[in-house]
């Protein structure tokens, strides 16, 4: 693994800026990989890791910088739970660890850097300095990842009986003998606009 400073530089390039959330994401990912014993997630261990993130904030981009996990490679999974948490899954060993930012870290930042007025700057500095155990809570977990969710999975493509759009990775819904995409089955996040 690289040093925190090296990851900070890469995260700044990838995300466009460095903030407390970026530092937190870097530290969470580094801690998770250390606990799993994965020292080269982008090189020799690049197909060994799947990461679940629970928030769509700056930390998520930083987690991707450390892990090499990307949505397009099917190695980064997003669950919109609004939590500063990520679960790192070692596909080789079957072990997984969920790393959660401690709420107390914000208070610790104020205590460590009272001379700094800006909370973001306090947090940025504290998140660099705090030991990982004080910055994050961990929980060893079991994550069931089906073959259709693994990187590199290939399967026949299905077509929705209603809209005619293609569906990958067994994401179709079977209803009353019909094959539907999730949108046509009522799970859409959008509504069509009739001109």
- Measured between the Cα atoms of the first and last residue, the distance is 54 Å
| SSE string, helices as H and strands as E | HHEHEEEHHHEEEEEH
Q: Count the helices. How many?
A: 7
What are the low-pLDDT stretches, counting only 5+ consecutive residues below 50?
Answer: none
CATH architectural label of the largest domain: 2-Layer Sandwich
Helical fraction equals: 25-40%
- Output the CATH class name of the largest domain: Alpha Beta
- Spatial strand order of the main sheet: 2-1-3-4-5
How would you characterize the overall build of this protein?
With 195 residues, this protein is an alpha+beta fold. The chain folds into 2 domains: 4-146, 60s Ribosomal Protein L30, Chain: A, CATH 3.30.1330.130; 155-187, Wheat Germ Agglutinin (Isolectin 2), domain 1, CATH 3.30.60. It has 7 helices and 9 strands, in the order ααβαβββαααβββββα. The strands form 3 sheets. Strands 2-1-3-4-5 form a 5-stranded mixed β-sheet. It has a two-stranded antiparallel ribbon with strand order 6-7. A two-stranded antiparallel ribbon has the order 8-9. The longest helix has 17 residues, at 20-36. The protein is globular, with a radius of gyration of 20 Å.
Brief summary of the model shown:
Helices cover 35% and strands 18% of the residues.
Give the topology, please.
Layout: H1 4-15, H2 20-36, E1 49-53, H3 58-67, E2 76-78, E3 85-90, E4 96-101, H4 104-112, H5 119-129, H6 132-135, E5 136-141, E6 158-159, E7 166-167, E8 173-175, E9 178-180, H7 183-187
Parallel strand pairs: 1-2
Antiparallel strand pairs: 1-3, 3-4, 4-5, 6-7, 8-9
């Amino acid at each position: 693994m690289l040093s925190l400073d090296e990851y900070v530089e890469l995260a700044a390039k990838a995300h466009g800026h460095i903030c407390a959330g970026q530092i937190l994401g870097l530290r969470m990912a580094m801690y998770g990989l250390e606990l799993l014993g994965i020292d080269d997630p982008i090189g020799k261990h690049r197909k060994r890791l799947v990461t679940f993130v629970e928030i769509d904030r700056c930390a998520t981009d930083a987690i991707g910088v450390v892990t090499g996990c990307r949505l397009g490679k099917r190695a980064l999974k997003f669950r919109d739970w609004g939590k500063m948490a990520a679960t790192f899954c070692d596909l080789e060993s079957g072990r997984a660890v969920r790393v959660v930012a401690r709420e107390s870290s914000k208070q610790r930042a104020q205590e460590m850097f009272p001379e700094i007025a800006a909370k973001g700057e306090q947090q940025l500095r504290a998140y660099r300095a705090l030991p990982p155990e004080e910055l994050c809570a961990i929980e060893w977990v079991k994550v069931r990842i089906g073959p259709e969710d693994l990187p590199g999975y290939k399967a026949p493509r299905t077509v929705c009986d209603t809209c005619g759009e293609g569906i990958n990775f067994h994401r179709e819904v079977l209803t009353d003998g019909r094959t539907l995409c999730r949108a046509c089955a009522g799970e859409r996040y959008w509504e069509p606009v009739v001109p």
